[in-house]
């Protein structure tokens, strides 16, 4: 069974299509990422899938349940970490989780056991009796992730899980996300506008822009779609090595520049060991190896014609998005 | 499913009560405010204004004022308890509540139960402070009846607050509600002056104010004097309470986050 199935989903706000006919699916145990700039329709999609917003047209199923017909069954199957913080900061970390566990109908024994498990998982067990208002941003985020896991959800939604956090905290949270995906076998749908985040976490990525999904694939496939990897080698005798590898079909191009031999290949990381071994067999000395892989940034540029950063910085678009949101009378 | 309903009601109630007890400044305010009202307004009016009802019933103004103060406290704190949904919306916590697999009705009932509890607690604080000023409830039966009225007033206005908060996008409408709803309800309720001997336009407006029947009921229960028969006060207030409960539940159940 598929954890999430979405067919031709559309959401209009007063004629503006926030989500424009998207379809995708997420497998059991998969981390699927929706990558796109702010206002691309990521959060709207998550709100529809988590039953807090009705789609205009189209079909969406979470864990086999239609989100419109069986919202309660869907709510029981999912955990959510919202983009904006959703904690009661007048309560302690433990109380926030206890509140959640009770709302999900867990009995006392299970509550205790589970709270301990998830708080330990995100490294907040020692801070459980501290009021949330004294938590740092990263701790709040980790607490919210822990809360999303409390009731053994089959599917976890993470809406911009590391937005506004410092680099170190982001990496910690990535580790937690990977760990729980492995350990609890949860399907995860995450949205992000960070390229490195999608790259580091997702098994598959859908690039979304202006409410449309432009492409869905594994990050490495997406990257090889826009260009080959480049391996640069520093050798004592580059010319000789170049003639040695002349007949190999997976080397698309080779040239020598500034004493470096540059090779265009696909899946460069898998080819490096072979190249080094070959050089050694022929008695050549490899002094330095470098691999440049195309980034998701290149992919985004390829599909949308602009970088995600340009999109972020586009004042005009942000203003028009703001006007849209005022017109539709909604917070976005 | 029924177990989960009460579980949800309980946990929302628990949250209201816990966070209320943690806000020390709020509790202090609940004691200080009636203190000022009684010490300044109560003593001041008692000393300087000759007062129709006092001559009739042998009450002084301070005693007359206490049930009104209780009504005022109930009005303000219960509407704020209902409007606290706005804070939850602002701080995102409302989403966490809304995506839980429990009925919206249980969420409303839990919030109203919690709001009513903290509200009655505050009203009892007022009574305690009044006691220091020599206020006494006539009979213990009267105290129990006044608790019923406190409950009705509390539920009514928490319900009203929930209804407003469910229709509001953000906090901007708060001032409007304060000035155009809460203040008129308070001033017209007969909390500060009796219903007797007023110009007809004013007494007409006061008869339209649901809190009038609450304050009158409280006064009847606590002091044994009331404008209307107690059973009449009770019936009007109960009908209003039911209406607000339904309105609050309805608007909350259709609100989007």
Number of domains of chain B: 1
- How many distinct domains of chain A? 2
CATH superfamily of the largest domain in chain A: P-loop containing nucleotide triphosphate hydrolases
Could you say which structural class the secondary elements and strand pairing of chain A correspond to? alpha/beta
Strand proportion of chain B: under 5%
Low-confidence stretches of chain B: none
Total helices of chain A: the number is 13
List the main descriptive attributes of the protein structure presented here.
heterodimer, A: 332 residues, alpha/beta, Rossmann fold, Alpha-Beta Plaits, 2 domains, globular, B: 257 residues, mainly alpha, 81% helix
Topology:
The complex is a heterodimer of chains A (332) and B (257).
Chain A: E1 2-13, E2 16-27, E3 31-35, H1 42-49, E4 57-62, E5 65-66, H2 71-77, E6 78-81, H3 93-103, H4 108-121, H5 137-149, E7 155-159, H6 167-184, E8 187-192, H7 195-201, E9 204-209, E10 212-217, H8 219-226, E11 229-235, H9 238-244, E12 251-257, E13 260-265, H10 268-281, E14 286-292, H11 296-304, H12 308-313, H13 315-327
Parallel strand pairs in A: 3-8, 3-9, 6-7, 7-8
Antiparallel strand pairs in A: 1-2, 1-4, 4-5, 9-10, 11-13, 11-14, 12-13
Helix pairs in contact in A: 3-4, 4-5, 8-11
Chain B: H1 2-22, H2 24-48, H3 52-57, H4 61-90, H5 93-98, H6 104-132, H7 140-167, H8 174-187, H9 200-208, H10 210-223, H11 230-254
Helix pairs in contact in B: 1-6, 2-4, 2-6, 4-6, 4-7, 4-10, 6-7, 6-11, 7-10, 7-11, 10-11
Can you tell me about this structure?
The complex is a heterodimer of chains A (332) and B (257). Chain A has two domains: 2-219, P-loop containing nucleotide triphosphate hydrolases (Rossmann fold, 3-Layer(aba) Sandwich), CATH 3.40.50; 228-292, 2-Layer Sandwich (Alpha-Beta Plaits). Helices cover 41% and strands 27% of the residues of chain A. Chain A has helices spanning 42-49, 71-77, 93-103, 108-121, 137-149, 167-184, 195-201, 219-226, 238-244, 268-281, 296-304, 308-313, 315-327; strands at 2-13, 16-27, 31-35, 57-62, 65-66, 78-81, 155-159, 187-192, 204-209, 212-217, 229-235, 251-257, 260-265, 286-292. In chain A, strand 7, helix 6 (167-184) and strand 8 form a beta-alpha-beta unit. In chain A, helix 3 (93-103) crosses helix 4 (108-121), helix 4 (108-121) crosses helix 5 and helix 8 (219-226) crosses helix 11 (296-304). Chain B has helices at 2-22, 24-48, 52-57, 61-90, 93-98, 104-132, 140-167, 174-187, 200-208, 210-223, 230-254. In chain B, helix 2 (24-48) runs antiparallel to helix 4 and helix 4 runs parallel beside helix 7 (140-167). The interface between A and B is medium-sized, with 30 and 27 residues.
């Amino acid at each position: 069974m598929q954890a999430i199935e979405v067919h031709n989903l559309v959401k209009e706000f007063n004629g503006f299509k926030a989500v424009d006919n998207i379809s995708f699916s997420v497998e059991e145990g998969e981390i699927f990422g929706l990558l796109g700039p702010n206002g691309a329709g990521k959060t709207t999609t998550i709100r529809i899938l988590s039953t807090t917003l009705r789609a205009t047209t189209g079909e969406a199923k979470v864990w086999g349940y239609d989100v419109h017909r069986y919202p309660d069954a869907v709510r029981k199957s999912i955990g959510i970490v919202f983009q904006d913080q959703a904690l009661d900061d007048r309560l302690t970390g433990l109380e926030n989780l206890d509140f959640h566990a009770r709302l999900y109908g867990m009995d006392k024994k299970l509550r205790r056991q589970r709270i301990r498990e998830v708080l330990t998982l995100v490294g907040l067990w020692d801070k459980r009796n501290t009021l949330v208002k004294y938590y740092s941003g990263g701790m709040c985020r980790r607490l919210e992730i822990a809360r999303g896991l409390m009731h053994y959800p089959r599917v976890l939604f993470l809406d911009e899980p590391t937005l506004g956090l410092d680099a170190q905290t982001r990496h910690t949270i990535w580790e937690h996300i990977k760990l729980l995906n492995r350990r609890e076998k949860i399907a995860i749908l995450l949205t992000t506008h960070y390229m490195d985040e999608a790259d580091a976490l997702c098994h598959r990525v859908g690039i979304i822009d202006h409410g449309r999904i432009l492409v869905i694939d594994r990050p490495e496939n997406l990257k090889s779609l826009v260009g080959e990897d480049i391996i640069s080698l520093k050798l004592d005798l580059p010319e000789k090595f170049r003639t040695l590898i002349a007949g190999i079909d997976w080397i698309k191009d080779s040239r020598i520049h500034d004493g470096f031999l540059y090779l265009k290949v696909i899946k460069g990381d898998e080819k490096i060991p072979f190249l080094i071994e070959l050089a050694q067999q022929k008695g050549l000395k490899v002094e330095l190896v470098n691999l440049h892989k195309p980034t998701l940034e290149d992919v985004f540029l390829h599909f949308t014609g602009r970088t995600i950063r340009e999109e972020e910085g586009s004042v005009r678009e942000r203003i028009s998005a703001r006007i849209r949101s005022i017109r539709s009378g909604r917070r976005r | 499913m029924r177990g989960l309903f009460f579980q949800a009601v309980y946990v929302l109630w628990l949250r209201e009560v816990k966070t209320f007890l943690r806000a020390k400044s709020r509790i202090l305010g609940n004691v200080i405010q009636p203190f000022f009202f009684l010490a300044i307004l109560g003593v001041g009016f008692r000393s300087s204004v000759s007062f129709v009802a006092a001559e009739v019933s042998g009450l002084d103004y301070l005693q007359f004022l206490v049930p009104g103060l209780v009504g005022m406290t109930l009005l303000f704190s219960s509407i704020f308890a209902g409007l606290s949904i706005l804070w939850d919306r602002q701080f995102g916590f409302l989403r966490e509540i809304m995506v839980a697999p429990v009925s919206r009705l249980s969420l409303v009932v839990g919030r109203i139960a919690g709001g009513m509890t903290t509200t009655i607690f505050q009203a009892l604080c007022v009574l305690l402070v009044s006691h220091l000023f020599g206020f006494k409830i006539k009979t213990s039966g009267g105290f129990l009846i006044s608790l019923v009225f406190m409950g009705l007033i509390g539920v009514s206005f928490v319900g009203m607050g929930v209804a407003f908060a469910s229709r509001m996008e953000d906090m901007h409408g708060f001032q409007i509600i304060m000035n155009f709803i809460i203040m008129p309800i308070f001033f017209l309720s007969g909390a500060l002056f009796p219903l007797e001997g007023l110009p007809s336009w004013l007494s007409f407006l006061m008869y339209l104010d649901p809190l009038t029947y609450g304050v009158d009921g409280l006064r009847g229960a606590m002091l044994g004097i009331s404008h209307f028969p107690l059973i009449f006060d009770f019936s009007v207030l109960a009908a209003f309470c039911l209406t607000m409960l339904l309105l609050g539940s309805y608007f909350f159940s259709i609100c989007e986050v």
